[in-house]
TrEMBL record:
GO terms for molecular function: oxidoreductase activity. The keyword Oxidoreductase applies. Belongs to the aldo/keto reductase family. Keywords: Oxidoreductase. The active site is at residue 54. This is Diketogulonate reductase-like aldo/keto reductase. Gene3D superfamilies: NADP-dependent oxidoreductase domain (3.20.20.100). Substrate binds at residue 116. The record marks 83 as: Lowers pKa of active site Tyr.
Length: 280
């Protein structure tokens, strides 16, 4: 069982990735963003997830620097992720986008760089660029986001390096069983974005009942469900109370029956775009 916020899963290339991190999707540049990242680091988070399209890499970088200064930890103790956006999917374009992200973040390298969406006919060349950055030691691990099984199968026909991570929308109403089983079989770590379904699950009666049994919040129950399913997760919050609460999931465990109850809420329901029907 994971015991604390610094516990990690080992990716197939040997890199250690924290099970729980903080995401910053839709958090605008500004003091709230900087404070959230710094606060997360101060409270023990070691994984921060952003993306070029979020438009907030500079603030994330500032928060990282302030968090390091406040805690005295080293950059090497953090796991920082960003993603290349659809408009930059191409060999040279992806390499250039990586440099831009590093510059905005103020970092010398990323721990994980992902292809954000599987744009048909473009992600293969982008993957070649990620492989080159990885071979050069410019990034610790590479992966994809929002890839379904058929995207992964297609990519693996040309890939020299297998993706280490696949970050997908994942929550009790979208359990992604097929993708999860395929990633497990291939040794690709599944990671959840929007694990709380953008707050839409927080008043669900089944989840509330389970939360009451454990003296926990619904958010904590969902995040614990992620972890017990072997899924890395990156809940978003800018409020210190929530940042701390989201990390307090290592002192209880859900029963097999409770895990099955939560699994049973699946409806294949998305809050984000369908990767097969996204108007890029």
């Amino acid at each position: 069982m994971m015991k604390n916020l610094q516990d990690t899963t080992t990716l197939h290339n040997g890199v250690e990735m924290p099970w729980l991190g903080i995401g910053v999707f839709k958090v605008e540049e500004g003091p709230d963003l900087v404070a959230a990242v710094k606060t997360a680091i101060v409270h023990g988070y070691r994984s921060i997830d952003t993306a070029a399209i979020y438009g907030n890499e500079e603030g994330v970088g500032q928060g990282i620097r302030e968090g390091i200064e406040a805690t005295g930890i080293s950059r090497a103790e953090l796991f920082v992720t960003s993603k290349v956006w659809n408009a930059d999917l191409g060999y040279e374009e992806t390499r250039a986008a990586y440099e831009t992200s590093l510059q905005k973040l103020g970092l010398a390298y990323l721990d994980l760089y992902l292809i954000h969406w599987p744009v048909a006919g473009k992600y293969q060349e982008a993957w070649r660029a990620l492989e080159s950055l990885y071979a050069e030691g410019r990034v610790k691990a590479i992966g994809v986001s929002n890839f379904q099984v058929h995207h992964l199968e297609d990519l693996l026909t040309v890939a020299k390096v297998k993706p280490m991570v696949n970050q997908v929308e994942y929550h009790p109403r979208l359990t992604q069983k097929e993708v999860g089983a395929y990633c497990l079989e291939q040794g690709i770590q599944l990671e959840a974005w929007s694990p709380l379904m953008q707050g839409q699950l927080l008043d669900h009666p089944v989840l509330q009942e389970i939360a009451n049994r454990h003296g926990k919040s619904v958010a904590q129950v969902i995040l614990r469900w992620d972890l017990q399913n072997g899924v890395v997760t990156i809940p978003k919050s800018t409020k210190e109370l929530r940042i701390v609460e989201n990390a307090s999931v290592f002192d209880f465990a859900l029963t097999v029956e409770e895990m099955e109850e939560i699994d049973g809420l699946n409806e294949g329901l998305r809050v984000g775009p369908d990767p097969d029907d996204f108007d890029f």
